[in-house]
Design a protein that fits this description.
The protein is mainly alpha-helical and about 130 residues long. Helix content is about 75%, strand content about 0%. It has one domain. The chain is built from five helices and no strands. The mean pLDDT is about 80. This is AEC family transporter.
Length: about 130
């Protein structure tokens, strides 16, 4: 909409604003209801695999690509930061809606978020220093 210089006003804007305002809290509430802090042995491999891929391998690949293409500055920091963030809470909602293993997804989101509290500062600190 920015490139075409078209604006959305009136009731359409208000409706979209209300929907957008409610989406994040509802998503967080549904993920919060499904939090799993216990480590179930049947989910151990899935959790470890997903967390390692998302929080270790993806930032490593991003780091290598940034060095390969000689990308630095703000763009590189943003790309690296986006590769470090844990799995989105919407994955839990989608797994419930589509009949997936929502318990495993809740565990992956929970443990990925907890581990990312340590991994994000370490990776970003390494990049900035």
């Amino acid at each position: 909409m920015q490139l075409a210089d078209i604006g959305i006003n009136g009731p359409v804007y208000d409706y979209m604003h209300y929907l957008g305002s409610a989406a994040s809290p509802l998503s967080l509430m549904s993920v919060g209801a499904g939090l799993i802090l216990t480590m179930n042995r049947s989910y151990l491999f899935a959790i470890s695999y997903a967390v390692c891929l998302k929080l270790i391998l993806l930032p490593l690949i991003t780091f290598c690509l940034l060095l390969t293409f000689d990308i630095t500055g703000t763009y590189a920091s943003i790309a690296l930061l986006y590769s470090c963030v844990p799995c989105a809470g919407n994955a839990y909602i989608l797994s419930r809606q589509m009949g997936g293993d929502s318990h495993a997804m809740a565990a992956i989101i929970t443990w990925g978020t907890l581990i990312s509290v340590l991994s994000i500062p370490m990776i970003m600190g390494f990049w900035i220093v």
